[in-house]
Design a protein that fits this description.
Elements: H1 5-14, H2 21-32, E1 38-39, H3 40-48, H4 56-68, E2 72-76, E3 82-86, E4 95-99, E5 105-108, H5 114-124, E6 134-137
Parallel strand pairs: 4-6
Antiparallel strand pairs: 1-3, 2-3, 4-5
Helix pairs in contact: 2-3, 2-4, 3-4
GO molecular function: DNA-binding transcription factor activity; transcription cis-regulatory region binding; zinc ion binding
Pfam families: FUR
Protein name: Fur family transcriptional regulator, ferric uptake regulator
Length: about 140
């Protein structure tokens, strides 16, 4: 479940960040499209028609701030653009399917790596805090 605007605003206030109108617009846009893996360019495209005063640098700074605060997770899918999704620390891991043709990113919710992660942690005495798995190929439309 994604965060609400109120929860994000509270987190900003706790860390002594102001909720500027630009940050609110960017956060609301991300919340409206939170099921997608949006890049800064995607967010900018979504907000610029209604709010032309918001610049690309503001979008980058806001997304980086939200990632630093742990609200968003910044990911690289190999296409040269960082993408963002909500961070859910208590949520079961999910993995990504990336289409090499159209760039669509799909989520795969079953985490088949739990037992492997536990075995690696036990064998190496390494405390694993996260993992990511990406599959590259072609979506149904592009096959």
């Amino acid at each position: 479940m994604s965060k609400t605007i109120e929860e994000i605003c509270q987190l900003l206030a706790e860390k002594d960040y102001k909720l500027t109108p630009q940050r609110r617009i960017i956060m609301e846009t991300f919340l409206e499209h939170g099921e997608r893996h949006l890049s800064a360019e995607d967010i900018y495209s979504l907000v610029k028609s209604k709010h032309p005063e918001i610049g690309m640098a503001t979008v980058y700074r806001t997304l980086d701030l939200l990632a630093d605060l742990g609200v968003l997770q910044k990911m690289n899918f190999g296409d040269g653009r960082s993408r963002y999704e909500f961070s859910e620390q208590d949520e079961h891991h999910h993995h990504h399917l990336i289409c090499l043709s159209c760039g669509e990113v799909l989520e795969f919710a079953d985490d088949l790596l739990d037992s492997l992660e536990k075995a690696i942690a036990e064998a190496t005495q390494f405390k694993i805090t996260d993992h990511q798995l990406k599959f590259y190929g072609y979506c149904k439309k592009c096959q």
